[in-house]
């Protein structure tokens, strides 16, 4: 039986609609072992970081969501900064360079 360790887990789960994303988010937020999370609806991925056992978190998410959960990648963060040199996370999307009223700071 493996110990809980500081790691990041990338899982694939079918998130059809916004309600599924909200439900997944609610379940993840209530997991004490998860420190940070990111839900990517377009790529059907959930990324969880924290002091956890990946298989236990996947089983818990699978039972509560009633959907198949697939563990794609586990990155151990206990040994330094991830263990892989030169590997940086690149998001599958780019931010827009346009300024709009939601991201432009207000000047008083």
From TrEMBL:
Specify where the region named Disordered lies, as residue ranges. 79-108
Superkingdom of origin organism: Eukaryota
This one is known as: Heavy metal-associated domain superfamily
């Amino acid at each position: 039986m493996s110990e809980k360790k500081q790691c990041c887990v990338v899982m694939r789960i079918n998130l059809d609609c916004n309600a599924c994303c909200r439900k997944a988010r609610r379940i993840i937020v209530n997991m004490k072992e998860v420190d940070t999370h990111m839900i990517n609806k377009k790529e059907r991925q959930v990324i969880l970081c924290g002091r956890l056992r990946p298989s236990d978190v996947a089983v818990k998410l699978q039972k509560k969501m009633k959907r198949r959960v697939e563990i794609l990648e586990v990155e151990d963060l206990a040994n330094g900064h991830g263990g892989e040199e030169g590997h940086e996370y690149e998001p599958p999307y780019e931010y827009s360079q346009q300024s709009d009223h939601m991201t432009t700071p207000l000047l008083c």
